[in-house]
Design goal:
The chain is α+β, with helices and mostly antiparallel strands. The chain is about 30% helix and about 20% strand. It has helices spanning about 30-40, 65-90; strands at about 1-5, 15-20, 45, 50-60. The chain has a 4-stranded antiparallel beta sheet with strand order 1-2-4-3. A hairpin with a 5-residue loop joins strand 3 and strand 4. The longest helix has 24 residues, at about 65-90. The termini are close together.
Length: about 110
Amino acid sequence: MYFYGCEDGANCTSIQFYMGIELDHTVSLERINDWNRDKRFGTAVFDTDGYPYLKMDLNLDFGGITAPAFEDNLDLWERLVAEFSDYVTADKTDAPQMETAPKPGPLQEL
């Protein structure tokens, strides 16, 4: 989770949920585009090493967000993570193997 627009660690104006997946095979751009076309929430992209990741932003500006709304967004994020994990690992039939060892991503460095 990344926090943006914060003042001394509080009153953040937005939050981004982020989840990367290190795979032993590649995922096609077409497959990622299909996800983004078919899903309203949770944007799929590639990191600089070619691994797919999922991100979702929450706008907290202008008064924040209620606890029930935040919990609902967390539930949505958990569902998206499970669906995306299944989606990118499901179709390996013609996918080439990754050629290099993965580099640590931002979440692994914490």
